[in-house]
Amino acid sequence: MSRRLIIASNRTAAPGEPRAGGLAVALSDALNERGGGVWFGWSGEVVERETRGVRLFADGAIDFALADLTQAEHDGFYLGYSNRALWPVFHYRTDLAHFDEEDFAAYETVNRRFGRLLAQLTRPEDVVWIHDYHFMLMGAEMRASGWDGLMGFFLHIPFPAPEVFTALPQHQRLARGLAAFDLVGFQTDRDTANFRRYLLEHCGGVQREDGTIRVFDRVLRAETFSIGIDPEDFARLAVSPEGRSAAERLGRMIENRALVFGVDRMDYSKGLPQRMAAFGRMLDESPGMRGTVSFLQIAPPSRESVDAYQALRAELDGLAGRINADHGDLDWVPIRYLARGYPREALAGLYRIARVALVTPLYDGMNLVAKEFVAAQDPEDPGVLILSGFAGAAEQMPDALLVNPHDIAGMADAIERGLLMPIDERKERWNALITGVREKDIAWWRVSFLKALEERA
Length: 457
Hints:
This protein has helices at residues 22-33, 71-90, 101-121, 138-144, 162-165, 171-178, 189-202, 231-238, 241-254, 272-285, 307-327, 344-353, 369-376, 408-420, 423-439, 442-454, and strands spanning 5-11, 37-47, 55-59, 62-70, 127-131, 150-154, 183-186, 206-207, 213-215, 218-224, 258-263, 293-298, 335-338, 356-359, 384-388, 401-403. By secondary structure, it is of the alpha/beta class. The strands form 2 sheets. Strands 3-4-2-1-5-6-7-10-9-8 form a 10-stranded mixed sheet, sandwiched between helices. A 6-stranded parallel sheet has the order 13-12-11-14-15-16, with helices on both faces. α2 (71-90) packs across α3 (101-121) and α8 (231-238) crosses α13.
């Protein structure tokens, strides 16, 4: 009989909430395959005073345990340390990082409280799987509460080079927190190597013959588990009634011109200004492309209360307006820029009709948009993926057109190349890409991680 699985993530797919994202579905599947388990996380509620304990809900075989945050915790733990310190540093933007001791204190407080709450829900034979940068100290707090079971951690964002990670004043405290886990998983070999090098060079870690590392009086394993998608499901969405409807609506608006498409949260790590600038540069240097192609960028806002995101929104508004003013005509708008979200079905339909997808983050842990685009394509007329070499997906997708998102001229050339690429080359590249997407899908990711974790028992 398999061990009971306990999952902790900042947000859950609790009863009544959609499970549209691939990760939410994967974690639900992992719990259901074991006959149930517990999914612990933040309720999404911000309350005036700290509430004791958790709220329990059941959804089939899955028990949800949800804890609230106070306003002070939300401001310090979530908006503060998680998104103003960890997020920028882990994405190599130390210039945007805000190092505040009170924010870190709030981060510690929430990790301590959540860790103790989760420890109370566990049994000795359970397997605990904690997710992402919000909870890097949570495992250590569970150990301090006396729980000594099997425990793994997966980081969904990049782990930076040691020279960057050490910019965090609390870097060693975070490393000690991660050392509480038996297995720490990363998106790419580069991230895994960065973490291992940090432990060896800055924490006195010792690499053992079996590849594990002894550090802080514990032994842990660090490995790569690149997250995937469900490609068959996404292919179905692309030809669903909702997908076809979205494609037809857009087709009427752009009058069946070639489509360059991008979908990203409005985040400074995604390289959105550089992407728009490159499209404008392509129009500047290739007058023959004017009027023949339209660029649609969907960028739903995120973390709007953070100053850096407000500045990004203003920059994008200005760029789109300038390029449209310079190049647009009475019957043609070069850039359509929509600051709102769309359902997965609609996005899948739009992916399918795009001639080129721009997935060009300045730095990203994986970026599943690249894999979704490939899965949604028509095998007989596939589009071209232009992918940043700094996206984690680039390690697995060398048959995309790989670009440097800081090289505006190079990206402009790649956009034109993608638009003009012959059908035979497009098919050849797509076949290589879809093979990789299918081999390492979302099921492979969760099964591989949990198998490796349980081998540590």
